[in-house]
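Homework help board

Subject: predicted structure for assignment chain

Our instructor gave us this sequence and asked us to write out the predicted structure in token form, then describe one feature. I got the tokens but I'm not sure how to describe them. Can anyone check?
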Amino acid sequence: MAAAISFPLASCAINHDPKLRISHSEWPGYEYLNFAVSKGFVPNSSIVPLKDQSEVVRAYLREEIDVVQLTTVDIVDICSRQPDRCPVVVLVLNESLGGDQVMTLHLNHLRDLSDKRIGVATSGFGPFVLEKAMQSVDLSIDDVSIVPMLVSEMPRELSVGNVDAVVVYPPNSEKARSFGAKTIFDSSKIPGQILDVLAVSPSVYASRKKDLTEIISGWFKAHNYQINNGSEAFASIASSQGLTSDELTEVLKGLVFHITGEDQRDLLRVGGPVVENLEAVQKVMVQLNLVPPQVSSPRVSSDLLP
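My token output:
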């Protein structure tokens, strides 16, 4: 059974800057807020660049970030570690329908992963995706050996044979593909289960609603800007992710964005898709011993939508 991966926390970092700190890590779905801040659509916020989702989780737990862009898997992970700072989910950034992948150099099928070494992110996300993949061929995560690592390390570790496969996502999936790695499972096989969301600390949610509304409005503005000025926004996103335009075009086929207020309200409604997703994610993570059975449930709110 996979064991929860924990890290020592540094002393808390109190934010004296009036600007809200928003996480940014390597994943194309997080680029729209980065772009929104760069265009001045979000005046009272700043971007905190980090490598991957596990670094974002740790930074949030150290109170170095106010607003996070993370999967619902990572949000449940946070709530299990610090229930008093369990974030409030306020926006669905994207759904992954192919972006998250199991990749390998020399194996051909998921069944070939049995007894092999698999590189996974140092948060709960990697084990979650891997378990879903293994379940699809009537195996489980117990049938493999997990090797925790940063997602940015995965292409190299796979290329030199330190692991047999990795659970990876763009842009690092494209780095792996460049030397011949291939995808043997992706999130299109588990629709509705991998959601990236915008979530905020409960204290900031209570005290900075105006600024949070501006952040969410800025995200919508960034998407509208791309629709009307596609080449500029596209080039900015590709450059930030270290991808070519052709690579980004292909990568974005694996992401679905819900860019209307109506769609977001439906996703975030009481008992709606996000609530159901969080409940399903929590159930799997309890089964994997990644979180305790009585983990706090994140609040889901559509109140800040424009």
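Reply (TA_rk): Your tokens look well-formed. For the description, you could write something like this. Residues 1-13 have pLDDT under 50 and may be disordered. That's the kind of observation they're looking for.
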